[in-house]
C-alpha cells in the first residue's frame, strides 16, 4: 500500500500527530475545508496536535459506539446505496472494509467494529465518519437571507 501511494509512514514506533496532520492537509491545500471529523478517542492529544499544526477548520468530534456510530453507519449506508460515494480503486480501503463489520445492540443500533482482532479498520472508520458528516451538512437547511427585525 505504501508503494501504491495509499499509505504514508511517519515516525518510528508511534506517529507524530501534528506532522501527520500537516501531511494529510497538504492533499487538500487551496481547498475550503468544511469540517474535520474525527473520533473522540484521545481527543485531548489530537486537539493539542491540531493547535500545534495551526489548523483552523471546524472540528466535529464523533464517538465510535452505538450512539454516534449508529447514525454514521446509517448515513454512510444510505449514501453508498444512493451512489454518492465514489473513490479511486484503493487496496487500503478494500482491506479496511473487508476487516469491518457492523454490530447491532438489542435496540437495533449499529456500530462499526473489527471482524477479526488483528484487523485494521482505521481507513474504513475515517471514510464512514467523513461521508456521514458530508451527508449531515448537505441535509441541513440552507439559509436564504437575513432576518427581519420589527422595531
From TrEMBL:
<dbReference type="InterPro" id="IPR005021">
    <property type="entry name" value="Terminase_largesu-like"/>
</dbReference>
<dbReference type="GO" id="GO:0004519">
    <property type="term" value="F:endonuclease activity"/>
</dbReference>
<dbReference type="Pfam" id="PF20441">
    <property type="entry name" value="TerL_nuclease"/>
</dbReference>
<dbReference type="InterPro" id="IPR046462">
    <property type="entry name" value="TerL_nuclease"/>
</dbReference>
<feature type="domain" description="Terminase large subunit-like endonuclease">
    <location>
        <begin position="32"/>
        <end position="134"/>
    </location>
</feature>
<protein>
    <submittedName>
        <fullName>Phage Terminase</fullName>
    </submittedName>
</protein>
Amino acid at each position: 500500500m505504501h508503494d501504491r501511494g495509499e499509505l504514508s509512514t511517519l515516525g518510528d514506533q508511534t506517529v507524530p500527530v501534528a506532522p501527520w496532520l500537516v501531511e494529510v492537509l497538504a492533499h487538500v491545500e487551496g481547498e475550503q475545508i468544511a469540517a474535520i471529523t474525527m473520533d473522540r478517542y484521545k481527543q485531548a492529544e489530537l486537539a493539542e496536535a491540531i493547535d500545534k499544526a495551526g489548523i483552523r477548520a471546524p472540528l466535529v468530534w464523533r464517538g465510535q459506539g452505538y450512539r454516534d456510530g449508529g447514525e454514521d453507519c446509517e448515513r454512510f449506508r444510505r449514501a453508498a446505496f444512493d451512489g454518492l460515494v465514489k473513490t479511486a480503486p484503493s487496496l487500503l480501503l478494500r482491506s479496511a472494509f473487508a476487516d469491518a463489520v457492523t454490530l447491532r445492540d438489542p435496540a437495533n443500533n449499529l456500530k462499526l467494529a473489527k471482524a477479526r482482532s488483528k484487523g485494521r479498520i482505521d481507513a474504513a472508520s475515517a471514510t464512514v465518519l467523513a461521508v456521514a458528516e458530508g451527508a449531515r451538512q448537505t441535509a441541513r437547511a440552507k439559509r436564504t437571507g437575513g432576518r427581519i427585525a420589527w422595531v
